[in-house]
Amino acid sequence: MGELASESQGSKELGDVLFQMAEVHRQIQNQLEEMLKSFHNELLTQLEQKVELDSRYLSAALKKYQTEQRSKGDALDKCQAELKKLRKKSQGSKNPQKYSDKELQYIDAISNKQGELENYVSDGYKTALTEERRRFCFLVEKQCAVAKNSAAYHSKGKELLAQKLPLWQQACADPSKIPE
């Protein structure tokens, strides 16, 4: 259309405007493509890598946590079983007093092991929440970078159009005007 208008004696100026418009739209399209490449590189590629690494890390961390928790739980169960045996022995004994010190030791050990297990579970929960938060922070940071690129894209496009639009509108302000 720009070529047709440029070849006409009465619309040459408008042909130049149409070429300028096409050039500005091409620049905006190129910026859009750059923004999409940036989106792919800044967010999608890094997310894919992060998911792969996180998946392996979290699997290993979960296994380690479960093994340690099971170990602490088993130690607690063992202590409780020993205390139960000791109490049965003391009930059948003619002198239950001789078992009281041992029973107190088991009660103390159970209390300590329960505390260790509770602390371990509590620390594990805090660690899990921290890891979850770190991952969402990573995602928010990447989304912010994409949003900045998008804002820059729109700002640049707006700037280009705002500069050119008044000139383009002025070129066709009087359709009846014919060049000399």
Automatic annotation (TrEMBL):
Q: Name one GO biological process term.
A: plasma membrane organization
**Coiled coil location:** none
Output the InterPro entries linked to this UniProt entry: AH/BAR_dom_sf, I-BAR_dom, IRSp53/IRTKS/Pinkbar
Query: Any idea where the IMD domain is?
Result: 1-180
Q: Which GO terms describe its cellular component?
A: cytosol; nucleoplasm
Gene3D superfamilies listed in its UniProt record: Arfaptin homology (AH) domain/BAR domain (1.20.1270.60)
Give the domain of life.
Eukaryota
- Extract the Pfam families matched here: IMD
Protein name according to UniProt = BAIAP2 isoform 19
Q: What is the lineage of its organism?
A: Eukaryota, Metazoa, Chordata, Craniata, Vertebrata
